[in-house]
Amino acid sequence: MQELVKNRKFESGIPSIWEKWYTGAMHVYAYPEPGRVSGESSVAIEYPTREAGKNASWAQTVNIDRTKKYKLSGYMKTQNIVGDGACIEVDWKDVNK
Hints:
The protein has a two-stranded antiparallel ribbon with strand order 1-4. The chain contains no helices and four strands. By secondary structure, the chain is mainly β.
């Protein structure tokens, strides 16, 4: 996946390839965020109003070969989580349908 996900460590800032997505009140998207695991940069999402049932994400569309296997991994640091918690999520869309 390393060659498929662009700027995967956020070393080049936040280019337009990374989209911000949220429900509910506006979230605070931070870059760079201190406390990274490796490299120079990381990102953060803060939700000041703490509405239950709402969420936010950084998202990137990646085209893959359906005949290959891929492995995705990452790190997440959380603090004062409310509601259902935090996750790293993969959604897919079949462009042939």
